[in-house]
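Bench notes, afternoon.
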Amino acid sequence: ANTLFNIWIKYKPRLPEWYYNERLVKVGDSLAQIKEYKLALLQCYERYLQQFVSVNLDDVMGDVHCFKSTFFPNGVRDKNAALTFRALQARNVCIYQMVCSRDRNLQNRESLQTLLNVLTSLRLTMQVALPQENLCWLIYNGTIHIYTICRHLMVMGQSAKVLEYLLWASICMESSLPLLSVHYLTWRATLYTAVSQCYFDCQDGIHGEIFARRGLIKIDELKQLEDMGSSLEHTVAEKIFREATLKMSVMIFKRAVYESRRKSDRFRRGSKVKPRKAVTLSWPRTVTERLLVEMFDGAAAQFLAILEALSDSSRNLLPPHPPVPAETEICDVTSELFSAGLEILSGNSLKKQKTVVDANRENIFVITAGEKGVSGDAAVKFVKLAFSYEDWNIFYSALEFVDNFLQAQSDPTWKKAEIELKLLTLMQPVVFPGKFERSFSISYDNGKEARTPQRSEKTKAIRKESLKPGDPFHDLMILATTVFSCVSTSEQNVHPDKKILVDVVMCLWQKCKTELQQIQMSGSDCLEYLHKHQAYQWLHILWIMNEIIEKSNIADTNVTFAEITLCLAAILENVAES
């Protein structure tokens, strides 16, 4: 930083002002590319912007007129305006990245407010630039930055606060003439989908559906214009329109599949198909499946709609719980969605159809790593949703299909999904001790040379065994040691998702907490207590929990983890004093 500071001070009086300013911003862009965001912000972008204002830059972001008069004294058509816009936008990106580096989970309230300020600044910059068609690149980039930050905040449960910014980004794409072309339609549909999702997150499904239908109208308007004078090859344009329409249709289905059942009295009795009877029926078997067939062509699109309809931002993987709405019909729809998803995974939905499917457009069921068929990621998500809803028959049945796919993959990137599903099977008897007799034990060969597509190279054993009701420690220790081995590998890309790790550690802590607190309260008689009650096993699990927290870098994600560490420290002190 000092070296760069000295360079700028040394060369500023020797270079033409326009050249010096261009170098400032260009060097900032280069620093941002190598993730030196703080250096780019302080020594490049803000140094450039300080020529316009000597006070805090955020102080002039509250009013559009003040903003324009400060940064664009000669108007937005000035030859230097584009460089100023570029610096303003890049400054916001650097601030966002710096917040992520120090507080990605936004545990500090100031971090959240900083990101909201960044969104406001991006919106203000785009508002001033929007009337200038030659600055459409700035509008496009701005929508990308807004979407990135908003998706981050949506994951953190802040959908209500980012809805207005996503709406703004969508309207900007519609208001800039160069961005109305088919080339940008895929991105525009992504923004529309994010807005609809935001509404659903806010429990405002009706407006989510309305906005999705509005998006369909906009897409259809563009298609009519494209048909009059095509600017792209027909096959390319057709694919773009099909994908955009699919995104909107999925968001419409997300609400329509439930609302259609609420509104219709004739389905309230006798509409539910029993599982044994469903085996002999041809697809579509239920009201839900018929709606899927009406709205979507192909198994992949239908499966995507099922996933979105079952997904709920307020539902976590742990603890799992079945749907508990007031209306029985909604539970029926959920069951039918899972049944339809399993039917697609098994391939029966296509085998039972009487229509001939074009082989070039549809695979007869395959979970694939490529574009055709149901994607592996989607299939894994379906299994996780079944676990979340406590639909154990669907969970185990789908797990068999997905495990067949995962074991046939040579790409090590699928190892992560394999491990996560293994953890779920181990967590079930811990969360529901003694409730189920069926459990899966999946073993994998960790050797790199063994990772071949041949199923014989990997082993999977499905076993039935009765859980030992008097030995709760058994399942806890298996889960703890398995997670520990997963996070101990040097291959970071196969570590389970941090959210799952947090859930597992919290689950272990809740199951062990009472026993561990008894050990902690034994004080100087700690060793005697451990020996008398054979409690060494609980201390072992506590140590493993601390190791998992440390190795996976999740200590800052939950305040309870500090309690776990303090508990271990207190017990070790008691042992030392015993």
